[in-house]
Specification:
The protein is of the alpha+beta class. It has a domain of 260 residues: Thiolase/Chalcone synthase (Peroxisomal Thiolase, Chain A, domain 1, 3-Layer(aba) Sandwich), CATH 3.40.47. The protein is 31% helix and 18% strand. The protein has 11 helices and 12 strands. Strand 11 and strand 12 form a beta hairpin. Helix 1 crosses helix 2 and helix 3 packs across helix 11. The longest helix is centred in the middle third of the chain and has 20 residues.
Length: 395
């Protein structure tokens, strides 16, 4: 098998729901990062890109008709470059990277452009088709922004609870307290702002033309544990723990990464920043989706031929503080190695873009620290998890 390397990664700053990026179409956001990834590779002839693979969770609005292909065309790349769109909900863009790495590993490609996009602001409402023409009754529009809709009646109702209620159940099962959640959320905001202030994200982001957004819009650096502790619970009025403050917000944004074989160094004019050393996917009961990264990462670590004790950095997508803490507890790792540059509670979680966001952050984090091994992991609605192990080739 051919080794697969990450040569670069870039993303937009993530905008909040209805915020600075709400006026930008998702296919334009995707085209921006696809084009930027080409511009950042000085020696790359765009025609040398074997394929573009992008993740997207909703696909019900302006990103329809295969957003990977649309973004490739809108970015002005040669029309001969194929594109495919992957949907594994929150893990879509990490899945795109995994799929591309396998293609490189099989010797079928040398340069692959991967990434993902989501505009939760612009996700449309949908109307189910009627079972008969000219119905007399009313019909209800369903939002495609997040979570279950148009649910199959045969689906087990325990599986189709809201994401927030599912997280309440997970927190109860694993004994994660409200105080720990709020402390975790506070840490996310503080570390994200610190990373922006120190310039860590400068090389990882590209500004969206026509907007004034210069950093992630959901960061609340002035927040405190006390303020977070004062927020009302959202999904359970009595005995609840999940709030808007200890959960990731709704967001808009796009991310991309340039993957390739060893030969890609010659083709791109770039040096690799990380090697994909292990991959893992796992599934469990849909209502405990937040815990699925545990086994996915265990599989990826095992396939990389290392132990958790070897891991120096973890990028875990913070869908909710409760599920993140449950995963960290299960791995038995030092919490200080997790999301050193902030996480999705502060950065944001535009579903299809988060996977390559954490992958790129992990690669640059290992490069900056000089440490060797890292894990990127993400939970996925309907009870799945994905993980990738990266190795710093220069460590």
């Amino acid at each position: 098998m051919t080794e697969t390397y990450i040569y670069d990664a870039v993303r937009t700053p993530f905008g909040r729901f209805g915020g600075a990026l709400a006026g930008v179409r998702p296919d334009d956001l995707a085209a921006l990062v696809v084009g930027e990834q080409i511009r950042r590779a000085p020696g790359l002839d765009p025609a040398a890109v074997d394929e573009v693979v992008l993740g997207n969770a909703n696909g019900a609005g302006e990103e329809n008709r295969n957003v990977a292909r649309m973004a490739t065309l809108l970015a002005g790349l040669p029309v001969g470059i194929p594109g495919t769109t992957v949907n594994r909900l929150c893990g879509s863009s990490l899945d795109a990277a995994i799929i591309a790495s396998r293609q490189i590993g099989a010797g079928e490609a040398d340069v692959m452009l991967v990434g993902g996009v989501e505009s939760m602001s612009r996700a449309p409402w949908v109307l189910p088709k009627t079972e008969k023409p000219y119905p007399a009754g009313d019909m209800t529009l369903a939002s495609t922004t997040l979570g279950w809709r148009l649910v199959n009646r045969r689906m087990n109702p325990e599986w189709t609870v809201s994401l927030g209620e599912a997280t309440e159940q997970l927190a109860q099962r694993h004994g994660v307290t409200r105080d720990r959640m709020d402390e975790f959320a506070f840490r996310s905001h503080q570390l994200t702002q610190q990373a922006w202030d120190e310039g860590f994200y400068e090389n990882l982001t590209v500004r969206v033309p026509g907007t004034e957004l210069t950093q992630d819009e959901s960061v609340r650096a002035s927040s405190t544990v006390e303020k977070l502790g004062g927020l009302k619970t959202v999904f359970r009025q009595e005995g609840g723990t999940v709030t808007a403050g200890n959960a990731s917000p709704l967001n808009d944004g796009a991310s991309a990464a340039l993957l390739g074989s060893e030969k890609a160094a010659e083709l791109t004019g770039l040096e690799p920043i990380a090697r994909i050393a292990g991959r893992g996917a796992a599934a469990n009961e849909p209502q405990f989706f937040g815990f699925a990264p545990v086994e996915a990462a265990n599989i990826a670590v095992r396939r990389a031929g290392i132990r958790w004790a070897d891991v120096a950095a973890v990028e875990l997508n913070e869908a909710f503080a409760a599920q993140s803490l449950a995963c960290v507890d299960a791995w038995g790792i030092d919490p200080e190695i997790v999301n050193r540059h902030g996480g999705a509670i502060a950065i944001g979680h535009p579903l299809g873009a988060s996977g390559t966001r954490i992958l790129g952050t992990l690669a640059r984090s290992l490069q900056a620290s000089g440490r060797r091994w890292g894990v990127a992991a993400i939970c996925i609605g309907v009870g799945q998890g994905l993980a990738v192990v990266l190795e710093n080739p220069n460590a």
